[in-house]
Please model this.
Amino acid sequence: MRHLRFSLLAVALLLPFVTGCSRLEGMATRYRAERMGREAQREETKLRIGKAAPDSATMLKIRAEYQKLRLTFRPPFVKGSGKAVEQLRHDIARQVGVAELTASRTALYAHRPDLALESARWVASIAEADTGLQRESDVAAIMALRGLRRYDEAIAAMRTMLDRYSPIAPPTPDQEDQILSIPDAIVELRTDTGDTAGAERERAYAAAYFRRILASHPPPILEAQVRARLIRTLLETGDANAALAEVRALHQIVSATPALRSFEPELLYTEARIRAMQKSYKEALTLYAAVVRTYPASPFVARALLDAAVIAERTNDDAGAIARYRAILDRPKPDPGVAPVAAYRMAMVKDQTGNW
Model:
């Protein structure tokens, strides 16, 4: 019994030293991981010098530099337990995980999505409670699956992300949680693969997803962003009445929240689009003109002018259409997504009217 008490006392006395050693070992490991990450970045810079577009062999060499962290530091990275050791383990896992995600992206550039997928899934295996790292690994896996043309698996992974991660309210309206872009990405993937019926199903899924978020009563900035995306989805499905109801709801939020005033141009433009869909052309033209007049620096001005010009064509106002197309092209910085369309349509109208 006396020997047992002595043994327990010895363990109790030695425990702080063991924990301290684990912490010191962890700090040293974290430093080595940070240094190795910086070395990988330097090697990448050297390998890229003189190469505007590095070939696949070079990209695989860069990948190998970043993979050195994974090959050097093995989970669980640090022995021992305790809050300090757990934090060190978390820090090292993030260092190694971020490097391996860089290796995953580099593999994609090297046209090796198979290697990219393996790296992404390995990072997911070490992420544990690090939600940020887990999300990044999920995105990397989706990109790799798309590269492998395993589209159904990519869509399933995106839906899993929607179920797993709730969108986070950003500090300002000009920032947005990338989770909110996933429903549109799913629709785009279905469209790109020629699956029209699938794209329609995904739009319905997207609308239901956005409504589910709204039902949880998110903070004003997040609510505004979600409603804006819901409105765009409803417009794509052709549900003008539901879209108009959401525009009115969003307008109330924007009016009550000064920080959301940046949504006003989009709201006005969207209402104009809805009126045009409802064939209320006169009202639509008035609203489009209000966008141009009230928010001259907004990116929605070019779209408003284009949509108004199309309405003018439909109502046989060729002069009005040409004037609006010309206004798009005469802007100080023509919108690259709108200006070519405006130039083409203006040429068509002029050709039809003989007005050259």
Notes: DSSP finds 15 helices and no strands in the chain. The mean pLDDT is 92.
